[in-house]
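call fold(seq) -> tokens
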Amino acid sequence: MSPENPPAPVPPEPGPVPSGSVPTGPVPTGPVPAGSAGARRAVEAVYRIESPRIIAGVARIVRDVGIAEELAQDALVAALERWPESGVPDRPGAWLMATARHRAVDLLRRRETYVRKLAEVGRELEEVPSPEDHLPDESDDIDDDLLRLIFTACHPVLRTEGRIALTLRLLGGLTTEEIARAFLTSTPTVAQRVTRAKRTLATAGVPFEVPHGADRVERLGSVLEVVYLVFNEGYSATAGDDLLRPGLCEDALRLVRVLAELMPEEPEVHGLAALLEFQAARMPGRVGPDGEVVLLADQDRTRWNRLLIGRGVAALERAGRGPYALQAAIAACHAYAVRYEDTDWRAIAALYRELAALTGSPVVELNRAVAVSMADGPAAGLRVLDGLADEPALRGYHLLPSVRGDLLERLGRFAAARAEFERAAELAGNERERDLLRSRADHCAARAAEEAGAGAGGSPERGAADGAEADGTEAAADVGSGGEAPGSGEGERPG
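ret:
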């Protein structure tokens, strides 16, 4: 796809488009046997779906996300006690919301500052219906509350790891144990991050509100960064034995779809949504049956999810020319190519040039070197790469020697390529990536032995894009977040 003459969009396959918000699948209602496993499953299913909205609605009353989560969990306990006997209500989410809000009112009334708080929240508190009553349609208020919760959980006053943990806890509905498993860390570590984040928000007096003006732009960048980093960790795990962690990608997709619904006027929200939809569409082809990495040139494109590609096309049409939108346009070039040989590498190189000018990111420049090598040959890509040799941000970064090794291999310099692949394997944190890099180093060693370092270069059809894909990303996939698009200097990941 070129910016001037984009190819025709790939239409989605027939079928319903998933909801852009948190899924709200049917939950059985009516009596269930007391103490039954079915009752517990029903309660937990409803809570997982509805907890972000419940916490958001209660936080608007108590103005403290930590207390709001505790009150939401109190409502969960009440449901576990009552639903096995009385049955699941017709509107279980409304029941939980009303119960949590009642407890919030009770809490305020017990405080010495009740009168002042009551004046702040107004008559609404006195009119909260009982859990058994049908609640009026408050979808607009709920959407506003969700947006406030998203901006609060992703407030820049928090460290990046705290923002990620708190967002997954409050908005993703994940337990502390689930977050710890996803990021290969201990449960106490995650619990400490969540607790510290809540305490920081309370101490700093962060208001429960959607920012406006210039502050909104800065804060939205923080929100998008969190979603982006969550997806990246699922798409190309930094450590462990598995390349993919699909659960994290699903969480990030759900969050960005919620944002797109709540903030339809923000082009970069749609840019990020398009990027994640395109990337998620390719996930089924990225690993083999035993979890091994499948290079971009070797992927079975019939396994790519056409429905998600269609969603990406629709989101990209609403995006502008910001960093996420440009990354999405690059990802679209891969999605539009029916065969690997059809990839428009010149368009990708041009988009990376535009992205590099916008961000000044050395990671983006690394990706541009990959695209240039595919469009104009490995020697041209190596010249771009040589300009990054002394870049401090890429020191110790495994993709730099990996891409260099690929370009040297294509030039027939097998001994030098082997050294680069071995260095990349030492730096890589993911076991699947290390395995592939070692395999490529062994292949270069064999070629060097056969041809004494003077063999023919690698096939241009399999070029430096495979070097990037070998390390868990395709060329033009995930541009780093360290201040480039935008970010904090953590979790920088090229593609």
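Residues 374 and 460 are 7 Å apart (CA to CA).
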